[in-house]
Amino acid sequence: MIANFYYPPNRRAFDDLIGIWLPRLAHLDAVLVIAGFGSESLPRVPGVEIIGEVRDVDEFYDRVDFALSPILLGGGMKVKVVEAMAFGVPVVASNHSLDGLPPAIQQACLTLDEFLRSDPLHRHDPRMRIDVAEELDQFTIESFATHVADLWNGRMTLSKSV
């Protein structure tokens, strides 16, 4: 899990990860990796490695096999889900983490129950699904720049015709 832990919904998600998710994941004999702003002040828990702030999120995603998003509070699209998938990391997410995301991205995420029923050692790159890759593309800087340019050009065309 990577997040800004100064943001109360993310701190709550950490507490839920430790109190609810970690006991259910314990049989996997895996280490949960936690990173991000304020993570160094989180309580130390067996089975959890807190690496603090990272200079580049690549460092975090290179270390993990799955991203966990146990978010229950907060509004808007959960950027951490899109970010993990953009790095080719599958996501295990709460239902709230999926709010506001495009359909294929939502469908590519696993709930905790689905993850536990699957082969957790089998990591898959969500970008291999064409529909997910297409939806992820809309969150790239190139797509954003193209969209803004299109909006600008449309606005300029309208103002010239008036």
UniProtKB/TrEMBL annotation:
It comes from Rhodococcus opacus. Pfam families: Glyco_trans_1_4 (PF13692). This is Glycosyltransferase. It comes from the Bacteria.
